[in-house]
Amino acid sequence: MWIWEGVTPYLGSAAIEATLRTIGARSAPVSGLAMTYAVASQVPLPALTRIGFSALGEPIVTTMSPDEAARRAAACGFAPASDTDSSEWSTRFPGSARLATLFAAERLLVANKLPN
Prior knowledge:
Number of domains: 1
Order of helices and strands: EHEHHEHHE
Low-confidence stretches: none
Distance between the termini: 17 Å
Largest sheet: 4 strands, mixed
Mean pLDDT: 88
CATH class: Alpha Beta
Number of helices: 5
CATH superfamily: Vaccinia Virus protein VP39
Shape: globular
Strand content: 15-25%
Helix content: 25-40%
CATH topology: Rossmann fold
């Protein structure tokens, strides 16, 4: 199982694709991938969010749509099994639905390695 959490927004597209290729190449047929990513249209107060993350030394570099995340995973041999967001997590797991809104732009793609 590969867990790639909280990284893709800070990498360029080439680095994301290179990492996924490496994960795909090093995965057994029963491997899983859990990858978080950010969706640009869901970023709250986009300009302020970008300024804030840049001030922390972690500028947001790459966002992607759910379709793009699925395509990238599929290109490396993974079949998407689910793609959920913080509003879904807050209804399925204990915690604060209000706090979940702070992470509205973050999604979790879970995928399974396809047989070779």
